[in-house]
Each structure stands twice: as C-alpha cells, then as structure tokens.
Fold these 4 entries.
Entry 1:
Amino acid sequence: MKDCKRRPPILIEKAKGIKLYDTKGNFYYDTISSWWCNVHGHNHPKIKRAIKKQLNSLEHILFAGFTHKPAILLAEKLVAITPKNLTKVFFSDNGSTAVETALKISFQYWQNIGKKNKTKFLSLES
C-alpha cells in the first residue's frame, strides 16, 4: 500500500436517505449506513420528529436509580412480546456494554442458585 497515494477525506455537508453530499454538491452512496448506525437512512422524517419531540423534554438520563416514561413504555412493550417468565429489561447504549452486562448477569445467576463453579464463558471465533 505504500505506493498508493492517500486522498484527503471528503468533506460531507449534508445527508438524506442513503446519499451523502459534499460541499461541491456531489453525492455518494452511504452503502455501510455510516458504520451501521443509520439503518433507516439519514435525515429520516419520522426519526427526526421523534428526536425533536424527545429533546423538548429530556435529552439523556442515566438509568442508575432513574428512569423516564419512554423507557417504561418500551420496557412494557418488550415484556409483552417475550415469554411470560421474562419480566426484566436492561437497556444498554452500545453493543460492548450490552455483552459485558449479559456476561455479568449470567455469572451472577449461577452464583445466586448455588452453582459457584460456573465461572467460565465460551467464545467462538470464525
């Protein structure tokens, strides 16, 4: 790769749907959804409305001893569509935290039921 000349980054000014627009008006297809974060496209009107509505009341709150109405409503919907014995919900803001928490919950479960020797996890690689 040493022989390949590096190009400067493309300055993106705006985005709509699957298109990214640079400062010269050229567009580029965002075929990776900006690292998979925009699966519904950029500037989606329904998502924008929901974000604006939420920003008018509360941007963010941590769940360490706090909650809010949208979280309660979402938790109720999730519990309603899962098996009856699954009545708890844990919200995470990213994949690594979700995996870490799932491992900790699993570990604690085995400790709680007296299987203290269950301390290992299996990790698969491809």
Entry 2:
Amino acid sequence: MKHLFIINPMSGSKKAMEFIPEIEQYFKDKDEEYSIAYTKYPMHAKELCEEYAKKGGYRIYIAGGDGSVNEAANGVAGYDTPIGILPAGSGNDF
C-alpha cells in the first residue's frame, strides 16, 4: 500500500504544515512509499484524491479542515480507497 498525504497549506491557522516533519520522520526508516502533495486552489484536494483513487493501491490522508475533508471524501467516492484525516482546520466539525 502506498501513502499519499494531501496538505492544505491554507487551512485553519496553517496547522497542516506542522504534520510534514512528523510524516517524514515516521517514514524515514520504513520500507513504504509515500508522497506529499499540496493543494493549490479550491477543489484541488478532490482532484488529487480522484486521480490517486483511480490508480488504486493508495491510502490517502488529508491534512486540512472541514472543506478539505469534504473534498477528499467526494474525490474517493465510488472507489475502494481508504482515507485518513489529520485535523488541521479552525473548527474541525467533521
């Protein structure tokens, strides 16, 4: 299983960026493939999730707020792709 971390650098008070060192440290000594992508515009998380869900074999993690989580859920809808949530928004009501 490959891992994709989608970071929304604009969510909340930019908390999502704080996960990057932890992600890199976790995978440092692991024999697992991971990558980090950054959202650049509205609905980009949805596009990224759908792109990687179509490829298959990925577990997707979204670091952002409610809007980012909503986009991720919509992006993987209809695919057998698990998503994880790294809460980094101002409200995190999801």
Entry 3:
Amino acid sequence: WYITRYHKGGEYPVFYRKYQSLENEEELLLDVNILAQNHDFYDVGGISVSLDNTLLAYSEDITGRRIYTIRIKDLKQEKNFSEAIENTTGKIVWANDNEHFFYIRKDESLRAFQVFRHKVGTPQEEDVLIFHEKDEAFDVGVFKTKSLEYIFIVSSSTISDEHRFIPADNVFAEWKLFQKREENLEYAVEHYQNDFYVLTNEGKATNFKLMKTPLSQTEKEHWQELIPHRKEVLLEGFEIFKNYLVLEERERGLLQIKIIDNQSGKSWYLPFNDPTYTAYIGLNLEF
C-alpha cells in the first residue's frame, strides 16, 4: 500500500508505504518537505519504485521550468545513490530486472524527444540512447503496460501516433514497431493475456473504436474489432483489469462507464441518477 499525506504546517507531500496490510507499520519513502529546504521552488515530478520494492527513483525540479533531475534512493540503506540524471521530463519507467529504468530528455525548446536507458549505480554519461524523435511535430513518451509485461515508447502529434515496444523482462531486446505512423491515424495500446488492445480512429472512426491484435502481429491489418465505431457515442478511453474491461463512453454530452466481464462477456453501466454529473476513470495501478 502506498500513501501520500500532507502534515500540518507542511507545504509538500510525504510518501509512505505499508507492507501487505494497512494495519502494518508505515515506512517512510520520501519527505518532500525536507527535500525542498533551501530551495525557493521545488516540485516532485514523479516517484517510481522498482518491482522488487528496494529502490525508489524520484524526479525534482528546482527552477520551475518543468525540467527534472532524477535521483535514486536505496530503500534498505535509506540513502541516495550518487548519480543524478538531468534534463528529463520527470517520467521514470522501471524494467523488471530492478537494475534499469527508462527516462525522457528534452531539447532546447523543451520538447520531449529522446528516450534513454539508465543502469543504477552508473553515471548519466554511460546511459544508452534508445530512441530519438527527429520530427519536431512529435513528442515522445514511455510507459509500462498494466500487466507489467511490456514497455512502450510512444511518438505522438496532434493527429498521429506511433508505438514501439519490448518485453519488460529484457531491456536489451530489439524494439519492435507496433504500427508505423500515418497521418490521421491515432491509436493507444494496452496488453491483456495473448493480445494487445488498441483504441483507435482507424478507418475514419472519428468517435474511436476498440480493437485487439495478437502479440506477434501488431500491424493494423491484423486488428480485430471488439467495440465498433458508433456515430452517437464517443469512446474516450478504456482500462483493462485481470477480470474486467472498463470503457469510458460519452453520449449526449455525459460520460458513462461501462464494465464488461472478460469471462462471461456480460456488461453493465455504472448508475448515475443525476441529470448532470462529472465522472471519469481515475488512476488504477492494480491489474
């Protein structure tokens, strides 16, 4: 269990965790109030714990320009490693080996344009450039699927996306292109069992549709329709869990949340009795 708390008189959050049960004793991960001392400005861009729960990577901005430096804390020894990874977006994605993570650097215009791999305990000068986005119309991002099995690099513009991926267990694997970029082709990817799920506007699906495709055949000609395009319903997003698929659908201006049982195929909507309301899928880290 991970907990964020603000203490009385403190301006910044304090991060804790508890092992297995909320009844267990809290372990302090990071007190941002202490980190912020002696700085006129301080912001934590993100924190990320390695899969074996021994290392904490966090990013900090002390200038207000949203340029973050990544630092690494040994949670057993309760001390920081010496290295500092500078000029990043603040996003940190751990590989499953608990030794490497991926991060993004910014160019002079603050565009996210390069993805690097870092090995804990080594200087930034030894980091490996994994991907360089040369088209200035595109920004890059990096994420791990909720299943924890794949790591994706995403290049995105206003009207186009391109993904490439590796198994999260093998940082040295060759990155595979999911579907090459095309003008007016937008898509987002998640993983579930033997398939990737794809939210896309492919085929002039202006309100988007949900597809799936085998792990070994990711080009769009292999995509199979799960939720079709509908003229009256905008498919805004989706979440995959071990037992359920959850959809965000907007109809007549209101967002509805639809739940589908992955085994039985039965589906239902969460009831909202008010004539107007705001609803959306929040952060869900559990698969």
Entry 4:
Amino acid sequence: YLVKIDAYLVKIDAYLVKIDAYLVKIDAYLVKIDAYLVKIDAYLVKIDAYLVKIDVYLVEIDAYLVKIDAYLVKIDAYLVKIDAYLVKIDAYLVKIDAYLVKIDVYLVEIDAYLVKIDAYLVKIDAYLVKIDAYLVKIDAYLVKIDAYLVKIDAYLVKIDA
C-alpha cells in the first residue's frame, strides 16, 4: 500500500507541476496584456498631444476671429486684410481636419488592441477552467488517498491487536 501511496503522491506531484506550468503561461499572458496596455497608454498620450495642438489652433483661430470682428467695424478698406486672415483660418481648419483624421486612425488602432486584449482574456479564462478541472481531479485523488490511509490504519489496528 505504501508503494501505491507513493505512486499517487508522484501523480499528484506531476499534476502540481502541470498546474505550475499553466500558472507560468497565465503570467506570460498577463505580461503581454500589460505590454498592450502600455502601448494603449502611449497612443492615448499621443492623442492628448494632438488634442493640445488642436486647442492651440482653436485659440489662435479665436484670436483671428476677434481681429476680424474689429476690422469689420473699421471699414471696407480692411476687407482685403480680412480675406487674408480667412485664408489663414482655412489653412488652420485643414490642419485641424488632418489631426481629426489622425485621431480617428488612433481610435481604430485602440479598438483593435482592445479586441486583442479581449481575446487574451478569453484564453486566460479557458486556462482557468482547465486548472479548476485539474484541481477537482486532485481533490478526488486526495479522497482516494484518505480512504487508503483509513484502510491502512484499520490493518495496523488489527496487527496491533
């Protein structure tokens, strides 16, 4: 019986090694997820930088609009100058449109990363289900071992008597 118990203990050790391997894999996936989150953070920083630039351009546009209002009050002679400012404003609007397109591209990339992260989470969930199944099996083996130990104790009591 001791040989059988040793054999079961060896099997249990093998299962524990497998569980450790799964835990290492899970840790690797978590590291990958962290790497994707770092990338997402980098994109968010870039988006913030573009938003700051857009805000700067909007402030400049607002300043030009104030000047335009002042020139409109002054007389028709300033209409030529106003036209020049309107051209500049159009240039800024083109730049703003370009930045908005870039932001849309980054948002699409972020969505793609979120889809990848969701896929990894599904994989991790699958591994956790497998680990739970192994734990159930180990519990069953432990119950069997306990039963054998009870039998061994009974035989030892008989031998002592």
